[in-house]
Amino acid sequence: LFKGTAPAQMQEAPDEIRQVTLKRSKSHEGLGFSIRGGSEHGVGIYVSLVEPGSSAEREGLRVGDQIMQVNNMVFDRVTHGEAVKVMCDLCLSQNLNLYFVGCTYFW
């Protein structure tokens, strides 16, 4: 997962909040996406990479989507490190329910 800076440009207007559920089939398997941003950069948590053929891609995550909530944790003021820890810890034991706004940003 990657650290990043604030998004430089917005391509489209934000959509409504959507939900996807990701489940790892193997314990050594990743989630199929990476993130950038965090409160230490003054921005939210954004998808920076989606692996082709991953469940994240099949569920509709796109580069630039802002992650608003993971399971019961709101991501409005989390650091990059906190976001990574929450997602990694949760995905080991349960499905990961992501709530996101489909808004494509470019860095």
UniProtKB/TrEMBL annotation:
Subcellular location per the Swiss-Prot or TrEMBL entry: Cell projection
InterPro entries tied to this protein: PDZ, PDZ_sf, USH2_Complex_Protein
SUPFAM superfamilies: PDZ domain-like (SSF50156)
PROSITE patterns hit by this protein: PDZ
Principal location listed in the UniProt entry: other
This protein's record includes keyword Oxidoreductase: no
Name of the protein in question: PDZ domain-containing protein
Organism: Sinocyclocheilus rhinocerous
